[in-house]
Amino acid sequence: MDGELWSTQRKLASHEFSTRSLREFVVKTLEEEVSERLIPLLENAAQNDTVLDLQDLLKRFAFDTICKVALGHDPCCLDTSRPVPSLFRAFDTAAEISAKRSTSTVALLWKMKRFFRFGSEKKLRDAIEIVHESVSEIITKKRKLILEDENKGGGDMLSRFLMAGHDDEVVRDMVISFVMAGRDTTSAAMTWLFWLLSQNSKAEKLLLNEVNRSCSNSNNVALNYDSLQEMSFLKACLCESMRLYPPVSWDSKHAANDDVLPDGTVVKKGDRVTYFPYGMGRLEELWGENCGEFKPERWLLEDDETGRVLKAVSPFKFPVFQAGPRVCLGKEMAFTQMKYVVASVLKRFEIRPVCLDQPVFVPLLTAHMAGGLRVSVRNRSK
């Protein structure tokens, strides 16, 4: 989306993302997905000494969660007894091929493939068709439910937009955007964090202490939104992980008009300007001499009354969620999801990689770990 259409959709979505009811719906969705699917899978692996690909598991979890929140639809990706849904595969294919367009040395090649509809561009077209058809079918069913009884719609984004009277095609494109934005980003961030914690026992111990303390203070067995907000060290760990391994390692914008950057660089209308969060996270001038080390403390300040509090860091220094007018609407939702999952898993299990080699960072549309993250799972001793 761009221009006036983007601006209109941004305003519509911004209103919904700010509602307390959506926040409560997200936490309820997380509680169900974690307790009924993720934890039992990890428990089974621990009991049977099974090696799991944690990256794949978290990717499936994230897709289930974002589909429930955006579409009110459960693709059941974490149900390993079922085949992988076509919608899941189609999103994967579309994202991978779209990313490879940008890395193509000669853009004319993929443009010719698109024009003649062959090779990777035919696969992309087919994948997009599956996504559009699947989401349109979900919209049709959802609209029928709402017409019968508005209460049947649910708290998901799709129901909210349909009940507000928006056109099916506009709603389709908006919810697809939300699924694209949330499907692999949070899972990638959590995958790298679990690996980093396995290499940093001190940080893992501090984090576990914070999780246990917050859970005992909440008077609830299940995590809730308020207890998650108390976990400042957990958020610092997530920020530090994303500084080193950002889910989106590079991004581009095109200039709407002639401009001049703060350093004096002249930008002409239509020029493509790319920024590189992966490289920025490793700049000494931004993060100091220890910029290559995992140090969550760099995100925290000591406070006499409340203990450790998070520093305010400019999004232009840490652009993982973008900055300015296009800052990510789902930022807080993403942190809520990641905190909920990491806290829930760490509280119950020890996660240890079976391979001690440094994982390879693959910077596609959403960056991931080459070959996944194969781990053993052990129940944490009481």
Automatic annotation (TrEMBL):
Designated name of the protein: Cytochrome P450
* Organism, scientific name: Cannabis sativa
What phylogenetic lineage does the species belong to? Answer: Eukaryota, Viridiplantae, Streptophyta, Embryophyta, Tracheophyta
Q: Which domain of life is it from?
A: Eukaryota
Family membership: Belongs to the cytochrome P450 family.
Looking up Pfam families in the UniProt record yields: p450
Q: What GO molecular functions are on record for this protein? A: heme binding; iron ion binding; monooxygenase activity; oxidoreductase activity, acting on paired donors, with incorporation or reduction of molecular oxygen
As cofactor, the record names: heme
What residues does heme bind to? Answer: 328
Sorted alphabetically, the keyword list is: Heme, Iron, Metal-binding, Monooxygenase, Oxidoreductase
